[in-house]
Design a protein that fits this description.
single chain; 218 residues; alpha/beta; Rossmann fold; 7 strands; binds S-adenosylmethionine
Length: 218
């Protein structure tokens, strides 16, 4: 089975329709490209902003900070005006965590974003309070476990957004280009089945970026 990708002309067109981003975004995009650090597509960043606006979210949890790109999309959202938003973001890799802290400082969002260093599996049960918006973008092979851990912290009416759920289309045909990707593909597929069967939420899956699942807790 070949990879399934959104046609390039459609992606380019959608990206052209996005508002201009501050130069800091280009700097992080460059750094990620140079150092092979994964990051959300800009159109997914814009989707997060729109969803945050619809939900009027204030307490946000992110799994997988990377070097801070997606958290900055959320923190510097023009749609946040009038709301006191707080973003808690979790990252297991020390170097990425430190680079993210640097960018949060540079962007002047240290009062908005709280980065935490550690394994999300261990950190989530230690978090205080609940969240009205969760963005899941950490290890794909752990998505089912992350979901189980995050679920009790998501408020009724809360929104859960999960990135990379189509994985180049591999989850559709249960195809993996190399053996070490098998677990990841199987676990993401398992998560999608879990979301489908779950009576406590509504889910839709969009073929945007690498596939985004959007869920709302009943
Ligand atoms: C796709 S990247 C995140 C990109 C980021 N959301 C962005 O768009 O800028 C996934 C990140 O999750 C981190 N990660 C993987 N497993 C983790 C875990 N168990 N707990 C916390 N972070 C984890 C990785 O180190 C990696 O930086």
């Amino acid at each position: 089975m070949a990879e399934i990708k959104i046609p390039e002309n459609i992606v380019n067109f959608i990206q052209q329709l996005l508002p201009e981003r501050p130069p800091l975004f280009a700097e992080i995009e460059e750094e990620c490209k140079r150092d092979y650090i994964p990051l959300i597509e800009p159109e997914v960043g814009q989707l997060l902003r729109v969803l945050l606006g619809i939900k009027q979210a204030e307490r946000i949890l992110e799994l997988g900070t990377g070097i801070g790109y997606s958290a900055l999309w959320m923190a510097l959202n023009p749609g946040n005006e009038g709301r006191q938003i707080k973003i808690t973001t979790l990252e297991i890799d020390q170097s990425r965590y430190e680079r993210a802290c640097h960018y949060f400082q540079k962007a002047g969002v240290t009062t908005v974003v709280t980065p935490l260093l550690g394994d999300a599996n261990k950190l989530i049960p230690q978090l205080e309070g609940t969240f009205d918006f969760v963005f899941m973008d950490a290890a794909k092979g752990q998505y089912p476990e992350f979901f189980q851990k995050v679920w009790p912290l998501l408020e009724p009416g809360g929104v859960l957004v999960i990135d990379n759920v189509l994985m180049n289309g591999w989850v559709i045909d249960m195809y993996w280009p190399e053996r070490r990707k098998k677990t990841m593909v199987c676990r993401v597929r398992k998560l999608l089945e879990m979301l489908k069967e779950h009576s406590g939420l509504l889910t839709t899956t969009l073929p945007l970026g690498d596939g985004v699942a959007i869920c709302v807790k009943k």
